[in-house]
Structure formats: C-alpha cells, structure tokens
Amino acid sequence: MTAMGDLLSQVVPTLVRVARRPGGVLLAFAAAGVGIFATLGLVHGLVRDGTWSWLPLVLAGVLAIPVAVLAVRRWRLQQQTADLHLHRTVGPGSHEVVVVDGEPMRSRMQEEVDTLNEAIAESTVRTARFLPRVEAAQRAALRAAGGPVQAPYLRDDLRVTIVAMLGTIAAIPLSVVGSLMTALLLLTA
After folding, report:
1. Which parts pass through the membrane (predicted)?
2. How many beta carbons lie within 10 A of that of residue 84, not counting itself?
3. pLDDT of 89
C-alpha cells in the first residue's frame, strides 16, 4: 500500500465518524417529514374521491426515494469503514534510527511517484456526462488508494450519493410544504 492509500484509509473513517451524527439527524428529519406527508397523503386519498386525491401520497413516495437511497449508502459506508481505523499500516513515531539502503528507498519513492502520476492522469480523463469531475476524482482516489480492495469505500458511485444527499436535503422543506398543503386540503374537505 502506498502512503496515499494509507492516508485515505486513515482520513476517510475519521470523516465518516465525524459525519455520522449530522447524517443521522438529516435522515431522521427527512424521514419524519416524508412520513408525515405520506400519512396525510394516504388519509387524503382515502377521504377524497377521484384519481387526483392520491397525488400527495405519490409525491411523498417520490420524496422518499432519495432519502432511502442516502440511508442505504450511508449504512454501506459505515460498514465499509468500520474496521479501517483498526488496521493502521504506519505505526506511531519511533525514536529509533533505521538506516535504509538507497536502492530500496528509491524504488519505494518511485512507486509512490508512479502511483501519484497515475492518479493525476486518471483525474484528467472526464468520460462521464453526469458530474464528470466527481467521477474523475473518484477514479483518481481509487487509483491512489490502491484499488477497490484497499479502498472498499470508493466502490459505490459518489455521484449517486451526492444526488441522493441533495434530494434528501430538498425533501425536508418540500415535505413540510406538502404536509401543510395536504392538511389544508383535508380541513376543507
């Protein structure tokens, strides 16, 4: 494993632990808002007549999709990074002096430089039509980390996760507005 891969294996679990509580709060608020909206939509569909009376329930279902996708992605990321911090490949600092022959050090340094150059080259190729920079950055990070075996947290497409997060953030105010409008429709029934 290269030093960049080891760095990613240390930084990513830390970021996941830091974002665990805010991500849970975001999902809880979004799920509560969408749940209330869906409940009111179901009641509205049962009380009112006609096909359009089920529209609030359908809209709540549409808002539930990014929330569910983000919840699954978050759970998978938590599982993939759960034991990474336990397997440090670089130990804490030592006070011993180790003399290393010049040739093995050069080969390790050359391996690091080659890996970084491959990652930089990978980041310049933007083949995706949807969020191409995110996809290129993910491929570069995957290359720098040493592949999907060394970095299982980079297997999932980050573009889907980003869109699901944005949809979850948008679901909170949209579900509140939808709930209020559906409640007003129920009161006027």
Report:
1. 25-47, 53-72, 162-187
2. 19
3. 47
Q: What is the pTM of this model?
A: 0.73
Nearest-angstrom CA–CA distance, 104 and 89: 18
Three-state SS sequence of the chain: CCHHHHHHHHHHHHHHHHHHHHHHHHHHHHHHHHHHHHHHHHHHHHHCCCHHHHHHHHHHHHHHHHHHHHHHHHHHHHHHHCCHHHCCCCCCCCCCCCCCCHHHHHHHHHHHHHHHHHHHHHHHCCCCCCCHHHHHHHHHHHHHHCCCCCCHHHCCCHHHHHHHHHHHHHHHHHHHHHHHHHHHHHHCC
